[in-house]
Amino acid sequence: MAFTYFFRDLTALNAIRDHVIPELRKNRYIDAWDAGCAMGPEPYSLAIIFKENLGYYEFKRFKIYATDLDEENHQFGKILSEGIYPEESVKRIPRDIFEKYFSPNNGPGHFKIAEEVIQCVSFQKHDLRSLKPIGDNFGLILCKNVLLHLQYSERIDVIRMFHKSLAAGGFFVTEQTQKIPGKIAHLFRQVIPNVQLFQKV
After folding, report:
1. Which domain holds residue 161?
2. Predicted confidence (pLDDT) per residue in 136-166, tens digit
3. Which of 126, 113, 110 is CA-nearest to residue 46?
4. pLDDT class for 106, splitting at 50, 70, 90?
5. Rounded-to-integer distance, Cα 15 and Cα 197, Å
6. How confident is the model at residue 2, as a pLDDT?
7. CA dist 127 to 20, 67, 150, 160, Å?
8. Does the residue 86 lie in any domain?
9. Dihedral sign, CA of 73, 77, 80, 82?
10. 105 domain residue, yes or no
């Protein structure tokens, strides 16, 4: 499991800001599932986007459940729960966001995320191929960099599972290179044409 970097897909994050958050902020609770979170930059980037665009009390109602199948890296849980990352992972963050949410850690070249962001993200190991969701009634599910490693039939089964796990009108985001298989395209509507952002129908 390799390190990814923060704010990797700004197009998708901006689409979430503009089209997802305005809808989800109406909910009593806002739950998101990041499936295939790697070492954490993606769910933490998402958490910062929500923090920037929700009010104080709205953000208190927001929770990200981040999962990954980690068979080799025993530092998985430790790194994600501590929220400490090397400079290589954080150097692409917009300067104003970096200064607001990151501070130097004791070790050289490492930075720690603000505690208010860490607290809204929880992590657990999970195998998507089990087709057993970690919960239901999610307002948003992200799955990047995982579906491309699955067989076509497995992708269909996993996306069906995501669909069932979404609340009515919930949103699903996947990698720009991934499309919803035609067999299950009727389960979603694409929100905007240039982003793989879909809404449950």
Report:
1. 11-37+51-77+115-200
2. 999 999 998 899 889 999 999 999 999 999 9
3. 113
4. confident
5. 8
6. 47
7. 26, 8, 12, 15
8. no
9. negative
10. no
Residue 98 CB partners (closer than 8 Å, separation 6+):
90
- The predicted structure's pLDDT at residue 145: 82
- Whether 32 maps to a domain, the answer reads yes
C-beta of residue 189 within 8 angstroms of C-beta of residue 198: yes
Is residue 7 left, alpha or beta, with left meaning phi > 0 and alpha meaning psi from -120 to 50? left
In a domain, 134, yes or no: yes
CA distance 111 to 181: 40
Q: Global pTM?
A: 0.94
d(CA 94, CA 45): 11
- Name the amino acid, one letter, at 23: E
Per residue in 168-180, pLDDT tens?
Answer: 999 999 999 888 9
Q: Which residues pair with 173 in a beta bridge?
A: 142, 197
Q: Indicate the number of domains in the chain.
A: 1
Residue pair 110/84 in contact by the 8 Å Cβ criterion: yes
CATH code of the domain containing 20: 3.40.50.150
Residues pairing with 33 in the sheet:
65, 141
